[in-house]
Amino acid sequence: MAELLAQAWTVARKDLVLEFRTRTALLSAVVFTALVLAVFEFGRDPTAVSALDLAPSILWVTFTFAAMLALNRAFQLELEHGTLEGLLVAPLHRVSLYWGKLLANLVFVGVVEAIGLPLFVLFFDVPVGPVLLPLVGVIALATAGFVTVGTLFSAMVIRTRFAELMLPVLLLPFLIPPLVLAVLATARLLAARPLSESAGYLRLLAAYDIVFLVVASLLFRHTVDQ
Amino acid sequence: MSLAQKGRWITLVGLVLLAAVYVRALAFTPLERSQGPAQKIYYLHVPAAIWTETAMILIGLAGIFYLFLRDPRLDRFAEASAEVGTVFATIVLTTGPIWGKPIWGTWWTWDARLTSTLLLFFLYLGYLLLRGAVADPGLRARYAAVLGICGMCLVPFIHLSVFLFRTLHPQPIILKPGKPSLPDSMLVTWLLSFGVFTLLYVGFVVQRYALAQRREEQGEIRA
Predict the structure, then answer these.
(1) Under an 8 A CB cutoff, do B126 and A169 touch?
(2) Does the beta-carbon distance from B126 to A162 stay under 8 Å?
């Protein structure tokens, strides 16, 4: 187990070092997030719909799209540089490869969200102060769900036709359950309802994360083996 | 008799029995008090919905066995089951609004139950699109198995949504903890209808399986 984790960390570190040295993908994702948030502002009538009513949806649609962009990149880069074969012949357990990619994706999406959340608060004047901690918890749980399934699928779609389009088509049905739960929990939190009201949603979110982490860890080798 | 012919016969018998069940449902089963004749669609809607979910679970199970055994027959079955599941999901999504218009006063509402069925429908479409986007048969079978297994794991989350959210949709009255809560005559009609849908599922899958088999044989001849 310790060895698996160490290998996973090596893979993740490789990806993250690559990412933070070039920063192109990260910057594009952040700009994209800011743009989507701005587009939402033009898409609503401020006199008819209050920002707070729309806030949970805005937050989650933005994060889902940003995550999808990030996920497309994880294996695409390896394929472009012909390094996927290298990774596969390296003395590296398949599960570690998956966990490493998962970790790198989580950090990547986490950074985008960490920049996106303050922007969201700024643009829509949402009172997140008192519920910041639970809100971050909801974001973490839902993001873990997205990225767990997304990393598995992104390894699969790179060898299909229309890979960029195939990922969202396959992934969105899987993102909706965590998305719905996250939106419901966020709405409760922003309406200053007690945390216990969202406990059921959070438990189901956690169950989703665990189920798909196990399933994806078991299935991953079937997506990359030749 | 070839496999395709067997499938055609099963389907034919199923369709005749479906007509018979509907004669029973319309003429010999009592009207539901509050919904009136609209409730009759229930005998079509619910069996189709159960088979939509079951077909996805069968795809997932076939996927698990495929990854262990690498038997192309399992993949052919999964492919057939996915197409039939898509058809059944379409039945659910068309009969639902037809019932919803007189009872709810709207064709569609973003209710948890409806949304989750729509989701399942998209899951089927994604599965079929993925199959179409991979050229190599071995790789296609493997990818399809992976997606099928994930889809199977998604079904409980979709199904739980009914119990978790407040919903306009009637609560399940047959598949629920405790005894079915409808009169015996309706239950019998429903069970007959469910039997017919099972027959139709088998008939369609057998035909589609035979088609996949022929296609592979043809591909081998060409190669």
Answers:
(1) yes
(2) no
